[in-house]
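User: What would this chain look like folded?
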Amino acid sequence: MYFLNSYAQVDVSKEEKLARDIVLKADQIRFPPEGFQVDVAVANANGGQVTETRQYRVLSKGNENTIVMVVEPASERGQIMLMKGRDLWIFLPNVSQPVRLSLAQRLTGQVANGDIARANFAGDYAPRILRTEPVDGEDHYVLELTAVDRSVAYHRVLYWVKQKNFFPHKAEFYSVSDRLLKTARYENYQPMAGRPRPTRLVMEDALRKGEVSVLEYSGMALRQLDDKIFTRDYLKRL
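Assistant: Here's the prediction, encoded as structure tokens.
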């Protein structure tokens, strides 16, 4: 019995390690682990008609430090979100103190704060491999990601990652009651910051059919970002 348990533990640990490696490699394909800057244009649509467009500039370092600056609309320019770990604040030009936000709170359209401020599946979820399945003739891992605590944006995620190169393909996001909230598709892979990355993220509301947000990423560049940039005191200068 002892030997059986030992072999089982080895198998489980190998499976867990593989699942963690897959998610980590997929994270590094979506965004560099080093410091970087990227512009994000968001178009919200309902029934195929664009209802709103917004633009953000994102500065990020190591998946734990992110600044999101509103570029458009002009009326909201000067608003800045700061993420440190899983703590998120928004700074408003006419308010002296920052306001604490939830990662799960809606930012615009189908986009939650955590979707744009924190893209760290490897740090926020415990993964396990459910199965492999073909998508467009290519084998994909299908992983179940379970939130490590309640501070993350979603309780559970189903995640499709291409087996041969760890390219993310699709994600389904679920609530605590296990209700499907929305789906995301990672599209239009293009070279950015040294490797192919998805430059379009299409997020569809599962509860309100026809409501879609499309995020377009451009101008990604690696940057040396000092830690002091990601502090509340420094943001007052911005």
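The first strand starts at residue 36 and ends at 46. If you want, I can go into more detail on any region.
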